[in-house]
Write a structure and sequence with these properties.
Layout (H helix, E strand, L loop, with lengths): L33 H10 L3 E5 L5 E4 L7 E3 L4 E3 L18 H13 L4 E5 L8 H5 L1 H17 L3 E5 L8 H8 L16
Parallel strand pairs: 4-5, 5-6
Antiparallel strand pairs: 1-2, 1-3
């Protein structure tokens, strides 16, 4: 029996993996300059762009499209935002209230964008396998607060060797067999 896990559905507040701090500039084009703008966008670097009417931030791989300008934003690395509130990764003396305070302080300081680890560290990653509903409830709580505070998040999904399928199969799921290079997990 093949198994699958939940897939995180990005909220409108998730930017993606792009450069967070960019140089300000107006990339809007006149009607006669639209063709030149499209050609220059194909060669343009990734950018965080702000919609000229709504103010919404979005990330684009090849520069800002029409109706957007390159955004100048301050970003922060709040790496433990999920960790501090997860029952799967106990941190003595630290709670989700600390995460919430950190997010509120960042926002009050003008920070709009932050990056965090969207999975637990090392052997604590087994928590999402054995307590899937609780892990996703903790993730949803964090995303709800991010949205409520008007922040944008760049979640880091895989950051070290603990994310290898071999570890997931042998340690977190305690499955036997040769994982090889294929990340398909089948229960015996």
């Amino acid at each position: 029996q093949a198994t699958t896990s939940n897939t995180m559905v990005p909220s409108p507040r998730v930017l993606g993996l792009v450069l967070v701090l960019t140089v300000a500039g107006d990339l809007s084009a006149s009607a006669s300059g639209d063709e030149n703008k499209r050609a220059s966008q194909a060669a343009a670097p990734p950018a965080v762009c702000r919609h000229q009417q709504s103010g919404q931030l979005s990330a684009y791989r090849h520069g800002c499209p029409t109706g957007f300008v390159t955004a100048r934003v301050a970003g922060a690395n709040i790496f433990d935002a999920l960790w501090a509130g997860s029952a799967g990764m106990p941190m003595p003396g630290v709670s989700y209230a600390d995460t919430l305070h950190g997010l509120q302080t960042a926002r009050a300081s003008g920070i709009e964008v932050f990056r965090y680890f969207a999975s637990l560290w090392g052997p604590d990653m087994a928590y999402w396998v054995h307590n899937e509903a609780a892990f996703w409830a903790e993730s949803d709580r964090l995303m709800d607060d991010i949205q409520r505070l008007g922040l944008y998040a760049i979640p880091s999904l895989g950051y070290n060797a603990w994310h290898k399928c071999d570890w997931v199969m042998r340690v977190a799921l305690r499955w036997c067999g040769d994982g090889g290079d294929v990340c398909v997990c089948v229960r015996a």
